Amino acid sequence: MKRFPRLFLMMLMAALFAPCLPAMADELPAPVTKLDLQDGDTLVFLGDSITHQCLYTQYVEDYFYTRYPKLRIKFHNAGVGGAKALDALARFDRDVAAYKPKYVTVLLGMNDGRYVPYNEEIFQTYRKDMQEVVQQIRDTGATPILMTPTMFDSRAVRLNPKRLEATPAERLELYNSVLAYYGTWLREIAVKNGDGFVDMWSPLNNLTLQQRDTDPNFTMIPDAVHPGPAGQLVMAYAILSDMNAKKGVSNINININPKGKAKARAVGGEVANLEFADDTLSFEWTANSLPWVLPSDAEVAVKLLKLGHRMSREALAVHGLPSGKYELSIDGEVVGSYRSQGLARHIELQANDKTPQYQQALEVAMLNKKRNEGPVRSLRGEWSKFQQLDRQQRALKADPDNEKLAKLVAGIEAKVAGMEERVVAHEKAAQEIEEQIFAANVPPTRKYVLKRVK
Questions:
Q1: CATH 3.40.50.1110 boundaries in the chain
Q2: Could you tell me if 196 and 144 are in contact, meaning their C-beta atoms sit under 8 angstroms apart?
Q3: Helix, strand, or coil here: 19?
Q4: Burial (0-12, 13-18, 19+ Cβ within 10 Å), 400
Q5: Residues 330 and 259: beta-carbon distance below 8 Å
Q6: What is the pLDDT of residues 196-231, one digit of tens each?
Q7: Where do the H-state alpha helices sit in 372-418?
Q8: In the CATH scheme, what is the homologous superfamily, with its name and number, of domain 37-248?
Q9: R_g over Cα of the chain
Q10: How does pLDDT run across 334-377, given as a tens digit for each residue?
Q11: d(CA 71, CA 79)
Q12: Where is 76: in which H helix or E strand?
């Protein structure tokens, strides 16, 4: 039989299979790469004790409150200490779906792995329950944002003799890699379903290793499991970075020509009443947003991440000034002195705590800290009791003749009684502080004066 030339066979196969390729590609949804939150939308943070800490969630909220002051975006923390995916399912209807979220971030897995080396049965339980969590989120019409478990910092344990003595050696050696495996599986699920995905594990591990080059005892997770404020800020940054959040706040660029005529170009707001006379430049600036300012306990990570420059850049450049030193004041308050050469290159104001916009953003952050440390955390406490009751009720169902367990369940039921009324009260208290935030986060028009002093 005469053999067909290879080129002919390749062309024939291409002709046969080409019509199928677009259809196959069309069946694969594109992953979500942005949190497109609009006025009235709600973002829910579903998770375990790391979410219950009310820190990375608070920092993400701070970002949106200051970056989008004209939008009333709502947030709900649905974290409970010790939670596994199965626990999240038990409270899903009231603690997640009831808030009608547009997006739900999911941070579960630290407890699901049970702090033991990789175990196939344990993983399959986690896999089954997480798939059900994702499906329930989708059933509400929301989009899941799957997030890897965070880092298990074994060195933090090794630095504590008492904790080291009480911790199995296999956990120290293997558990961080178990969490990495769980996170890798979550990424595949997100890609397959077209969900959002955030890598928490890598930045926590990578930054920690970098810092240990100079400080072998460095950790952002003192108890090996629960990140402190610095680690939680790394987590918040991971969400915003992986979800391609808007980075810059503003960029004001002013040119003064040889005749002394000033002209401005700006991004992130509007310049008005621009004047230059007697070596003094003045203008009014109405910004669209505020810098992302955080409570001082997260300052370590602000510096590590170069967070101001990366996520909150407030740049001012002035070209054509007569050579010399200039004093910048905003609303009558002196915020710094700069050489004309530096102003021509540009200065950045986002980390300058003397500026009124920094102080305004800090006020927003402190109000939100009050909201999270008060009613939000109290609300999470109610769900902690609910989780305890749900677990014990399941145990009693499996062992109905256990009188001791029945008595324990009755005691917890008494504590949970009236929970809905308390939940509503905590929600109301959180909303009252949220109203204060919305009243404080709108940037007013500010007067800038740049005056030559030398």
A1: 37-248
A2: yes
A3: coil
A4: exposed
A5: no
A6: 999 999 999 999 999 999 999 999 999 999 999 999
A7: 377-398, 403-416
A8: SGNH hydrolase (3.40.50.1110)
A9: 27
A10: 999 999 999 999 999 999 999 999 999 999 999 999 999 999 99
A11: 25
A12: strand 74-79
